[in-house]
Amino acid sequence: MIFNIVSGALIFGYAGWAVFRHIKKSKQGKCAACSLAKNCETKCDSVS
Amino acid sequence: MLLTQLNKGERATIIDLSLVNESVRRRLLDLGISEGSQVCLQCKLPFKGPCMVENCGQSLGIRLQDASYIKVEKKC
Amino acid sequence: MLNIALIGNPNTGKTSLFNNLTGTYQYVGNWSGVTVEKKVGIIKNKKGNLIDLPGVYSLSPLSKDEAVVSNFFVTETFDGMINIVDASQIERNLLLTLQLLEFEKPVIIGLNMTDVAKRRGITINEQLLSEKLGVPVVPVIARSGKGTATINDLLTDDLKVDASFTLKYGPIIEESINQIIHLLPANLSIPKRWTAIQLLEGNAEVRKYIRSLGDGAGIDSIIQATNEQIADETAASNTSKWIYSVRKAFIEELIQSSVVTEESENKSLTDKIDKIATHPFLGIPIFLATMFLMFKLTFDWLGIPLSDILDGFISGSLTTWLTNGLNTAGASDFIKAVVLDGIVAGVGGVLVFVPQIFILFLLISFLEDSGYMARAALVMDRTMEMVGLNGKAFIPMIIGFGCNVPGVMAARTIETPRERMLTILLTPLMSCSARLPVYALFVGAFFAKYQALVVFSLYVLGIVVALTLAKIFSSTILKGEFSMFIVELPPYRMPQGKALLRSTWDKGKGFIKKAGTFIFGGSVLIWLLSYSGPAGFDVPMDDSFLAMIGNVLAPILAPLGFGTWQAGASLITGFLAKEVVVSAMNIIYHVPNADSLQGLLSNEFSALSAFSFMVFVLLYVPCLATVATIRKEAGSVKWTWFSVVYALVIAYVLSLVIYQGGKLLGY
Ligand SMILES: Nc1nc2c(ncn2[C@@H]2O[C@H](COP(=O)(O)OP(=O)(O)OP(=O)(O)O)[C@@H](O)[C@H]2O)c(=O)[nH]1
Ligand SMILES: [Mg+2]
């Protein structure tokens, strides 16, 4: 029973988070695909 | 004569670029091609397609129309 | 922390050096205009940041990627520059170097491609060059990393500033420079002499910047007057030409003294390959044949066998292990269903196509690194010109085959704004790798014998539709006369195995990552929607929420040959990421592996409606990430909406024509 609750929560929690994050990242467009995105300071906004 | 009148593989010196469109000329200068540069016509693509021109070991593609405004003088 | 900028002509190996010095991987390719955006990385010696910039020939921009660099110079602060100079093309590379030296910041010259120069018989006396220019000159081979350690060592906290370098431009210009310097704001953050020279040369970005600081009328009239004076009193017809000729003369002298070239006029390999690749009549057929071969490899020869093995593993062993594991752990039916029918079906159904996608990426990377891209642009120029574009627009399109997002960004290298906009709008029609699983699934079920051919026809269809629309748009809403095309044709280079694998992995890892994150999440949600309905949980799927959503679209899609709620529902999910279409179908049809799904599909679709479905998936709306990128690159909400709407309309019309036309023909 406990296994069911824990794994259910894990799966759905992770799934919801992953979808949410994907949509958020996609909306940023080009940065999402860049491997430097994390420590890149420019956030790709040098050209408007 | 004009760059486009050269035969394939012929070399020539550019003598006048002033008729060439402003932006195209800027790009040519960027690539180090100005009056006095040595060029070689490498090939022309069919159906009035672009031509390949070599200068100092660097090849570039340029439209036939633009190339026909470039005046050259054949090396003797 | 130091901020060091990497600057140099296009395709000279800046990004290769960047990767070497920072230990990251950024996009490298053998054509001009690979990097179109500023990228910041941390130098391995932890002394500071390295900033990779697009390649430029001079600091006066013509295209959008070049404007990134000019903008960087006037608006950002940095401590020094590494100027990458292509040793085999040193003369024109130095034109930029002179402008950098005038910026009065420390400069290190990285003399790259020394291996190529050596092969061409060019010997450069770097000591002498260093003395004459007053900056360190380090010979490197960025590709292999030779010499990069020396550069690393030079990047210390006390970078030497040697502002002694000045090139005199003759009395007229010098007088004007002095006048302009007096008119510039006293607290200007960039060097005044440099600013004055750039203004005289006609650098639009610098001019814009100076105007933004205050009224530039006085400066404008000096520029004007200088222009006239130069035209009257010298052989040059305007200031920028004069400045160019002064620089050129200086460089010629420099080269006379420090560069020795031995004539070694043997025909290089490049010439031989070029004979074929840009053959007058074979050019385009060769391009098509190359593409077709790519698909043969991707599907028939390598991809399918590999993905069958993977499929066997996922639907066989893996599923058995998971079932046993879940049973032992005492999982409820609900958990078992979400894992087996949701996650394994959805994620597994997409992962199966990893081999195909990696093979395709490997081939694209090979094309990019070999030097063929610029040739393809050359060969296509005539065709592109007829539809109101230029050959360079073809490069973003080829990149778009991998992923539309970098494709749309690559349009920055196109000089004329109108052609750039057209390219941005049309690149999403290129069939990106995310659409590949959809094709793979359907061709496997319906066109087993002609897999490569059918997929190939879809890619070609994408190009044909793009060119047709280019013609229509350029003669209606995006009219304009001016079009230009000049492309640098780099020498062919045999791509190195390691670099090739690296760039393939870099492209492909996104796909695997997506499978673990978004596709996982999407599968769970789609499963949940298919498992629950107004009547509660575990409803028959036809009564689920998912069916309700799909049913809204079904009647609209019916004329196209796939008017089922299943097709409708999976297409909606595809807007977020196109791979999810396959996940959704796997979940909906309740089968954990591609083989049985393909069997089931043949009941729901006919060969004709399957083809119509694939065409629809090819063309209908760009994915969310692409739409966001279009929004940024086009800088207009109106055009962004346009790109979504026109794609939908075209997809609908074309699928309709194909399905109804095919039916009439009796398929
Ligand atoms: N033979 C040789 N090839 C090199 C060397 N350095 C780089 N290359 C190749 O040159 C090509 C261009 O390299 P990039 O690093 O993408 O050049 P870039 O200056 O960043 O180019 P842009 O971003 O387009 O301005 C690639 O194919 C590299 O493999 C070198 O030292 N020797
Ligand atoms: Mg680069």
Automatic annotation (TrEMBL), chain A:
The superkingdom of the source organism is: Bacteria
Keywords, sorted A to Z: Membrane, Transmembrane, Transmembrane helix
| Ranges annotated as spanning the membrane | 6-23
> What protein name does the entry list?
FeoB-associated Cys-rich membrane protein
Taxonomy of origin reads: Bacteria, Bacillati, Bacillota, Bacilli, Bacillales
TrEMBL record, chain B:
Q: Which domain of life is it from?
A: Bacteria
- Annotated Ferrous iron transporter FeoA-like domain residues: 1-74
Q: Please indicate if the UniProt record lists Iron as a keyword.
A: yes
Q: Cite the SMART domains for this sequence.
A: FeoA
The record's section on InterPro entries has: Fe-transptr_FeoA-like, FeoA, FeoA_core_dom, Transcriptional_repressor_C
Q: Which Gene3D superfamilies match?
A: 2.30.30.90
Signal sequence span is: none
Keyword field contains Iron = yes
List UniProt keywords, sorted A-Z: Iron
- This protein is called Ferrous iron transport protein A
UniProtKB/TrEMBL annotation, chain C:
- Where are its TM segments located? 276-295, 334-367, 387-410, 422-447, 453-474, 515-533, 545-562, 609-627, 639-659
Indicate the segments forming the FeoB-type G domain, all copies.
1-161
Where it sits in the cell: the answer is: Cell membrane
One matching Pfam family = Gate
The keyword Iron is annotated on this UniProt entry:
yes
Q: Is the Iron keyword given for this protein?
A: yes
Entry membrane topology: Multi-pass membrane protein
Say what the protein does: Probable transporter of a GTP-driven Fe(2+) uptake system.
So what family is this one in?
A: Belongs to the TRAFAC class TrmE-Era-EngA-EngB-Septin-like GTPase superfamily. FeoB GTPase (TC 9.A.8) family.
The record's section on NCBIfam families has: feoB
Name of the protein this chain belongs to: Ferrous iron transport protein B
Q: Which gene encodes it?
A: feoB
